[in-house]
Amino acid sequence: MKKYEFRDPIFVKTVLKSEHYPRLFSEDGRPMSEVAVAGRSNVGKSTLINHLFRHRKMARTSSTPGKTQALNFFTLDGSLAFTDLPGYGFAKVPEKIRKSWGPMIQSYLENRDHLKVILFLFDIRRMPNDDDRQLLEWIIHNEKSMILVLTKVDKVSKNERKANCQKILRSFGADNIVPTFYSATKNIGRQELIRLINEALQSEEEE
Ligand SMILES: Nc1nc2c(ncn2[C@@H]2O[C@H](COP(=O)(O)OP(=O)(O)OP(=O)(O)O)[C@@H](O)[C@H]2O)c(=O)[nH]1
Ligand SMILES: [Mg+2]
Predict the structure, then answer these.
(1) 57 partner at 20 to 30 Å CA-CA among 8, 48, 170, 195?
(2) pLDDT tens-digit profile of 75-124?
(3) Is 4 domain-assigned?
(4) What average pLDDT does range 166-185 have in this prediction?
């Protein structure tokens, strides 16, 4: 079974509409499996992509929420596709863009055939809200495999980490969730996340 090494990141394109999604094939001519990174605005999606790819400026990040307002496609190892999704729930994003978030994500989750795994990023200091539950519902409805990544764990103590994790999982009320901790700032969780992604892809690709 193929193991993805997370090397040679390449930016493919920025897309607003489903008809512009790239069709990505690996060298052996097979459609690339795809991993998407989703979650609330400012949770650290683009930062995690850069950290995971060991590349400073692959995905654009910002301390102002609402930086990523379209879908950004990347590839790794010439054989795995990666998508940075726009974040939701930021009030200062213009109304028109805020309204387009739902349909944009929903249509991506429904129509992207080779989307295998979703990294659902969630700030370890927060509790789930209606938007987070909506996203989880769509992921479950579309039968995608999901990894819950609790981000910014450098902001809490080890004890808080564990306690917050339990509270978040209980609040989501889904028992099939696989959680993992991440901090791009303190370099925590990269190897473990790569292992979990490979594991999830393997079981998806065997089907
Ligand atoms: N302390 C800490 N800060 C982080 C971490 N990851 C990201 N940040 C900060 O969080 C802010 C938002 O990061 P982004 O990666 O742009 O967040 P995003 O989820 O892509 O946001 P949108 O594009 O608006 O959806 C930036 O100021 C980052 O420096 C982390 O692991 N620890
Ligand atoms: Mg972003």
Answers:
(1) 195
(2) 999 999 999 998 888 766 677 767 778 888 888 999 999 999 999 999 99
(3) no
(4) 92
183 forms beta bridges with 188
Exposure b/e, 176-197, CB count within 10 A at least 16 = b: eeebbbbbbeeebbbeebeebb
We report the CATH number of the domain holding residue 87 as 3.40.50.300
Q: What is the pLDDT of residue 56?
A: 82
Q: Are 171 and 142 in contact (CB under 8 A)?
A: no
Query: For ligand 1, is residue 51 a contact (CB within 6 Å)?
Result: no
| Domain count along the chain | 1
**Residue 165 C-alpha to ligand 2 middle, in angstroms?**
23
Ligand nearest to the CA of 50: 1
| Position 1 in a domain | no
- What is the pTM (predicted TM-score) of this model? 0.94
pLDDT, one tens digit per residue, over 135-164 is 999 999 988 999 999 999 999 999 999 999
Structural domain of residue 52, as residue ranges?
10-206
Residue 129 in any domain: the answer is yes
Nearest CA to ligand 1 atom 30: 152
